[in-house]
Amino acid sequence: MTIPIDTIILDIEGTVCPITFVKEILFPYFLNKLPTVLSKLQFPINSMSSDSIIQILSLLPPEERSTPEITFKHFKQLVDDDIKDPILKSLQGHIWEQGYNDGELQAPIYDDSIEFIKQFTQENSNKIYIYSSGSINAQILLFSHVNDNGNSVDLTKYLSGYFDILSAGFKSDPSSYIRILDEINKSDSPKSVLFLSDNVNEVKAAIEAGMQSYIVVRPGNSPLSDDDKSTYKIIHSLDELDL
């Protein structure tokens, strides 16, 4: 018997949002604003402070927070190498928050994704969660400042929760998805949960955890191998979901 899907877990980058938004808009915005943010702090960073930025930077090894130049170089290298570092993600979230609040940033969520998020959750039993390597704070900011035909709209009211690498673990690890299933009370019915991502390794991990999972192909995403195409279910738009 086919188990109906009543829970969706969405990746963000390359799935519901163009992959270029992160790499061509958010990352450069962060690096452009970071020097000014660091220039307002006293180095070396002392963790004995209630300032949220200082608390984040105090998690760095002492040698990486000795001067603003060294700290900037450290974070720039992480961004350039696309390293999923929790400290970087937390700091990015704080800087992006100011950009969203100032109206300098809006998230270009795909039209099909905006409509799907609204329509799927009209059924009271249906729920949508977000699982991204970006911090939960950054996820909430993104979905609360969505560009919908030139207007900024808030989609967070349609979302039931958020997971990141700090709360759930790394996205290529099946144990992360098992942890999420437990958190959302779906351990006994994992097949009723569908995870959507552009990343083959993430889809594989979700399937190994017992979920259903499809690969989402969008413009600019990494090409799939012939083996991937024959192994996994592929969609090009959330319009294709018949749930």
From TrEMBL:
It catalyses: 5-methylsulfanyl-2,3-dioxopentyl phosphate + H2O = 1,2-dihydroxy-5-(methylsulfanyl)pent-1-en-3-one + phosphate. The keyword Magnesium applies. Substrate binds at residues 132-133, 171. GO terms for molecular function: acireductone synthase activity; magnesium ion binding. Mg(2+) binds at residues 11, 13, 198. Its main location: cytoplasm. Keywords: Amino-acid biosynthesis, Cytoplasm, Hydrolase, Magnesium, Metal-binding, Methionine biosynthesis, Nucleus. It is found in: Cytoplasm; Nucleus. Its cofactor is Mg(2+). Its EC number is 3.1.3.77. It holds the Pfam family Hydrolase. Binds 1 Mg(2+) ion per subunit. Pathway: Amino-acid biosynthesis; L-methionine biosynthesis via salvage pathway; L-methionine from S-methyl-5-thio-alpha-D-ribose 1-phosphate: step 4/6; Amino-acid biosynthesis; L-methionine biosynthesis via salvage pathway; L-methionine from S-methyl-5-thio-alpha-D-ribose 1-phosphate: step 3/6. GO terms for cellular component: cytoplasm; nucleus. It is an enzyme of class 3 (hydrolase). InterPro entries: Enolase-ppase_E1, ENOPH1_eukaryotes. Belongs to the HAD-like hydrolase superfamily. MasA/MtnC family. Monomer. PANTHER family: ENOLASE-PHOSPHATASE E1 (PTHR20371:SF1). Bifunctional enzyme that catalyzes the enolization of 2,3-diketo-5-methylthiopentyl-1-phosphate (DK-MTP-1-P) into the intermediate 2-hydroxy-3-keto-5-methylthiopentenyl-1-phosphate (HK-MTPenyl-1-P), which is then dephosphorylated to form the acireductone 1,2-dihydroxy-3-keto-5-methylthiopentene (DHK-MTPene). NCBIfam families: enolase-ppase. This is Enolase-phosphatase E1. It comes from [Candida] subhashii.
